[in-house]
Input
Amino acid sequence: MMTGRRSWSALDLSSEAEQILTLARQFAEERLQPTAEARDANEDRFDAAIHRELGELGFLAMRVPERYDGLGLDLVTYLYVLEELAWGDAGVAVSVSIHNSLPVSILLRRGSDAQRDEWLPKMASGEVLGAFSLSEAGAGTDAAALRTQATPTQGGWILNGEKMWVTNGASADVVLVFARTDTADDRRGSRGISAFLLSAGTDGVSVGRKERKMGQRGSETVALSLKDVFLPQRLMVGDVNRGFSYALEGLEAGRLGIAAQALGIASAAVDAAFEYADTRRQFGRPVRQFQGMEFKLGDMVTRLEAARGLLERAAAAHTLEDPRARRLSSVAKLFASETAMTNAREAVQVLGGYGYSREYPVERLFRDAKVTEIYEGANEMHRSLIARQLYRERGYV
Amino acid sequence: MNTIVCMKRVPDSATRVRVTPDGAGLDPAGVKYVVNPYDEFALEDAIRRKEEAGEGKVTVVALGPPETAESIRQALAMGADEGVLLVCAGSHDALSVAGALADEIRGRDVDLVLFGKQAIDDDNMQVPQMVAEFLGLPCATVVVGLEIAGRDATARREVEGGHEVVEFSLPAVVSTQKGLNEPRYPSLKGIMAAKRKPLEEREVILEAPTIEFLRLDEPPAPAAGRIVGEGVDAVPELVRALRDEAGVL
Output
């Protein structure tokens, strides 16, 4: 029984926003959730049919402004849509989140007029799916340690290196890729990195190993190998050596998307636990009538609503360009991901033996939840950032 | 071709509805309302026909409380061109609703009037036929296939145990059944565009009802089940209970 799964009314959303969320929920219930198990069993399969449908319905156009044939959706509505999609399949939601939050938003802020005119309308329609490639084997949380090198040449750059953990990497049509543009005798750390638009099928690009992941198998995660890849100057995004700051800007918004995705997992866990506790009978009554079960369900809902509140607060700060936005984004991501993990774990416990079985979806939620504590900044990093950022806001050095 | 789709706003079938203590109606608290699912087949048919022809207009007409406008917006988001809401409160019998709809449709330049075969709330299955009668138009009900060539239409109707094929000419009234098509999702762009499409709201006063509504009652709670025994030994008692108590054997 899905009745009353969500109540947005308290949020005072516009009627369009409410219709969009209704659509997202319907799509998640009818198209994503019933097929999530198959994607999970199929080991990191990118579901092209689902992505085509997402594109046709406009889910890939959410953060593209109307002047580029997008929808120009406000941040809060966008995040709640991601939550809904993640409720159905977190793996699919993350690829929608990456597309909208990273390549689209970075192009929008830092791309040239020509780049925006060329790429954004196609990215809005879903004709072009975007990916983001910063990480490497030796550059995860310490992303500025990346080693892929772009060497200047006549009319552009030659790229060589090995990128890793690229979500959508094999199926994307364009990858926003980050490479060093400083030189071996003048290393500049985070100030020696630039951003490039890399089209699928460019000479010298090969898709490497597909990761076999614990969860979120509805999204593909691959390595990309770049061997003497020539990119003309017009494919550099923004200024030379400024790319790392663009990546951080994008990731700051991106982590709100991951927080929303984590909320979707946390909320799916609540729904599964509630439904089961109502229908499962032991000792002659539904198990939800046992106080121990009520305590669990009560805590799960409380954490979920708290996480939602934090996300809304962070989104508001971000929209208002409030100086606290960076800290609040970290807070929201940290708390939402831990809520996803805790709620998924508790849902498995509520379902008992069935929760551990693949017959019920909660063991998938449990596996899907874990990575939200790891990617878009490991939670330990966010804890440090939150502390440091608060000192900075208060004027300490 | 101009099509009118008559639409009703009904409680979502997944909602647990409760009757108000006085039996006067449903308790609206916690009830989610949706476009009547059978009307979505009508809407999808009208929109597809317009898209394939590359011309024509789809008008949605609904009768109900002011909140019905939300449901019309959803139809506009799916691709209808304009909406008309005949505002009236309370519940009404089929004849008075059909009269009001016929008054609205009469005089409009329309080729096809589509309905869902019935509304899932009161299940009357009367209004489309009554509207056809008021307008003096041919009427095909429970339609799962509809071909239109020029002014000639052929409809495949679901009947007990099979299909019946009927021919008629336009303008006509058709009520649609599951199987006619797969209604689309409104797109996000459609939702954003819907707010700019015309939606006319007008108060209407309905004819006095011909049916007196008395009250609604909750269905009786199902009696608790009984375990008559276990294994083979329980069979004689089970057979006896099914025959003598339940009367199903």
In short: Chain B has a mean pLDDT of 92. The CA atoms of residues 73 and 194 of chain B lie 6 Å apart. Chain B has six helices and eleven strands. The helical segments of chain B are 37-53, 68-78, 94-105, 127-135, 188-194, 235-245.
